[in-house]
Amino acid sequence: ASSERSASARLPLGSASMQGAPSVRIVAAGVPSVVGSFVAKSPTAEIPKGFAAVCESMRWPTAESWRSLADQQKTWFLHENGAYIYRNTRDGQWWIDEPSGGGVYVAKSDSDLPPTEGWVLLPQAGKRPLPQLEVKA
Q1: What one-character DSSP code corresponds to residue 41?
Q2: Which listed residue, 8, 58, 99, 133, has the most CB atoms within 10 A of its CB?
Q3: 39 neighbors 48 (Cβ within 8 angstroms)
């Protein structure tokens, strides 16, 4: 068991078998694609595919945009369908984005994990009801 424990300690953040990693579950929201469980990811190890798709469509450099927008000190969270949650350092908000990369909800917070309250919808894409989050540290 101790060799198994040391092996999982070496896994990158966001690995499905990593024990004790924070997680987020959106139990309800007006945008169905963001409802479900999200696993922790390292901001320095991976960029969400939807984020990359938006950057490519806007002709922005993907890696540079991720480094300048996503808080490199805070974990981001990925849904199996590609939806994601990350903290944007430019506006000081946590963002919930659809798999396509389009933002749907934001919440102003400096916390290390997404807040459970304070979410507002983005008028172009978000729909009521506002998201209800369960966050496990």
Answers
A1: E
A2: 133
A3: no
**pLDDT tens-digit series, residues 95-107:** 999 999 999 999 9
Measured distance CA(122)–CA(126) in Å, rounded: 5
Token pair for 57: 């469509």
Using DSSP's 3-state secondary structure scheme, residue 93 falls into strand
Q: Report d(CA 118, CA 35) in Å as an integer.
A: 17
Which residue is it, tokens 């990593």? 18
User: Between helices 62-69 and 49-58, what is the axis angle to 10°?
Assistant: 120
| Entry pTM | 0.85
Amino acid identity, position 67:
R
CA distance 71 to 79: 19
* Integer CA distances (angstroms), 67 to 5, 41, 122, in order: 31, 14, 23
| Cα 93 off chain centre by | 12
Q: Would you call the peptide bond into 123 cis, given omega within 30 degrees of 0 as the criterion?
A: no
Can you tell me which residue has the tokens 């078998």?
17
